[in-house]
């Protein structure tokens, strides 16, 4: 019997995909015809693209709802949309859920960062009061790492027995030998120079300042730094010391195939984040055969593979020594580690992740029918 699942996918209804959108897209993409699943995928903004993968086993619907900035799309528009449909189960894949749940509802909480960062006014009320009620009513909760599971159970003890850990996967492009060309702006800025790759964007906990300091002190005068993850208007140009200007560049949003090329060409990837629910770059760099430098904090403790160098988060001298070691690594040693890393990273499979999601769906529906 085909199971009809509604998927909330506002993170696909955007000009550029970010981490949560990639997760939603890959779950949809990796369900097969033999899985007997039909989707209705919901977006909220008709004015921007809806990046639902094709072919999709089902259909997509984009609808706006008056009062969206007060979260009424999620709390009222979506439940009203579900009435009169044959959707049997709703998956809210982006941390939050409606209080009114006409069908059994599952939520994916990626991490507790939205609740830990300072908020005020309606946003604070929505996260800390409205969602407290909504989460109590959810049939199940999916999260992406043991670290996130612990944080969720500590914040909401009533969810502890409803939590399932399903790790993310790695995009197929990382296992392909095909290299997509980089955007001309990136190629011309680098002009063939070796480079470090910073992943993370402008958020303070991602620590772009550490990447700049590593570039300044590592001893590679011809080395450049490429920063990824910065949206429009968030590039910290004022933070770049005068001595480094001309050696620090920012990428536009890249397709997965372009990102793989950027990883593969880097001397090393630098990922100085202080907290992550999963941490895509720690795995992606190793999948691309590139050494990656990070701290084993939160979920990253489970992502230490053959091409990872790890240091305490506040020990800058240890970070610097590790980077210098990577830059001096003989080619044969790097190639050997890269081969081991590509084998290690196979455990992160989007198909396996999709299968685990289907198990949760069917378990929730079976319990609801009883």
From TrEMBL:
Known Pfam families for this protein? Glyco_transf_4, Glycos_transf_1
Statement: the UniProt record of this protein carries the keyword Acyltransferase: no
Q: Which InterPro entries match?
A: Glyco_trans_1, Glyco_trans_4-like_N
**Which Gene3D superfamilies does the entry mention?**
Glycogen Phosphorylase B (3.40.50.2000)
CDD domains noted in UniProt = GT4_MtfB-like
Keywords of the record, alphabetical order, are: Transferase
Q: Tell me the ranges covered by the Glycosyl transferase family domain, including all copies.
A: 193-343
Q: Which residues form the Glycosyltransferase subfamily 4-like N-terminal domain?
A: 19-172
Q: Domain of life here?
A: Bacteria
Protein name per its UniProtKB record: Glycosyltransferase family 4 protein
Q: Which organism is it from?
A: Pelomonas baiyunensis
Taxon lineage: Bacteria, Pseudomonadati, Pseudomonadota, Betaproteobacteria, Burkholderiales
